[in-house]
Amino acid sequence: MDLILRNARLGDGRSVDIGIARGKIAALEPGLAADAEELGVGGRLVSPGFVETHLHLDKACILDRCGAHHGDVGAAIREVTRLKAAFTPEDVYARAKRTLERCILNGTTHVRTHLEVDPGIGLRGLEGVLPLVREYAWAVDLEICIFPQEGLLNRPGTEELMVAALKRGGHLIGACPYTDTNPHGQIDRIFTLARQLDLDIDMHLDFDLEPGAMDLTHVCRRADEFRYGGRVAAGHVTRLSMLAPDAHAATAARLANAGVALTVLPSTDLYLARPVGRPDTARGIAPAHRFLAGGVTCSLATNNVLNPFTPFGDGSLVRMANLYANVCQLGPADFAASFDMITSHAAALMNVKGYGIAVGNDADLVVLDCGTPAAAVAELAPVLHAFKRGRRTVTRQPPVLHAP
Ligand SMILES: [Zn+2]
């Protein structure tokens, strides 16, 4: 063994020592007899590292450049379009690096970042973010989803740039159908490109509070036709929050059967989705826990940090899980499900291999200052340590009260 975490509490309640060798979990048992460096964690929860499925590193931390007006999603896109003209690779790199480090300090070990290309920004965003994949491989697996934030069919030149970005290091393909006048046309084109290039798909979808037909239905249809089940995720889908509760089960079954996963972005969805003439309870958050119960792979993720889409952010997925549980009025019995949506379900959405606390898996671990996943969600438990492939990457000293 290279390292033993002593007296760890697992999410299922087991108390064990975790033996780590060559970057893998090599043993899980109480009173593990082996000679290695030791770290006592005092009965605290040891969880797999957090998995951020949806984060925009390229446009993070620009709040100080934005005008005073903040409005809906269209206003946010227009403001970033204006600011993007001045983005340089160096500027993107510096902001993305700062944001990624915050994520790492908050226990995240896997990140999918959505990165926009269009004739305005060209490949400068990619040039800023791409170096971070290697530079931070010691702490995080970073994958890049290339997508057309300003439209695909409406914006000539964008598709060529997307293909170029994918050849230069992009890992998967995204979409933003509501930015084209023909949303289904964009969805179809993205599926075709994904199949040609053998890429997973992660789309921004149905990002408003109009009741009625959803592009999600079309995505499920295409996922069936292209046999793409398990390789498609949809983010936001705030229209799901407008569904009558008795429609949840059938819609969940449709997604589960098509193998289309759902990502909810609580902070952005709350901030941007503006219910007009509707009760305050309609806050634009898709009820992911009901879809989870219906067999859908669901994750909660950050989306944006300090920009017109989301003028909040610290890269903490525990905070997202807490925010989701609070806004969606989850009972304590469901807090663990909220935690699953930043860990195991998020990893399933990203098809992460070797994830989770089991012998043979990567030793990507976080130590939280609490005893259970439910407590992590309820108490916003801080991350005290993080490990990537067995190497410690983060230490946070617990705060100390200095009583007189
Ligand atoms: Zn997004």
- The beta-strand count equals 16
Basic shape: globular
What is the H/E string? EEEEEEHHEHEHEHEHEHEHHEHHHEHEE
Bound small molecules, deduplicated: zinc ion
- Main pleated-sheet profile: 8 strands, parallel
- Kindly state the percentage of residues in helix: 25-40%
Measured on Cα atoms, how large is the radius of gyration?
21 Å
In what order do the strands lie side by side in the largest sheet?
Answer: 6-7-8-9-10-11-12-13
What separation lies between the terminal Cα atoms? 43 Å
Low-confidence parts: none
Strand portion? 15-25%
Number of helices: 13
Mean pLDDT, all residues? 93
Structural class: alpha/beta
Give the tags:
4-stranded mixed beta sheet, 16 strands, globular, binds zinc ion, 8-stranded parallel beta sheet, 404 residues, alpha/beta
Word description of this protein:
The protein is an alpha/beta fold and 404 residues long. 32% of the residues lie in helices and 21% in strands. The strands form three sheets. Strands 6-7-8-9-10-11-12-13 form an eight-stranded parallel sheet. Strands 3-2-1-4 form a four-stranded mixed sheet, with no helix packed on it. A hairpin with a 5-residue loop joins strand 1 and strand 2 (15-21). Helix 5 packs parallel to helix 6 and helix 10 crosses helix 13 (373-379). The N and C termini lie far apart (43 Å). Bound molecules: zinc ion (ZN). Zinc ion is lined by residues 54, 56, 114, 204, 235, 303.
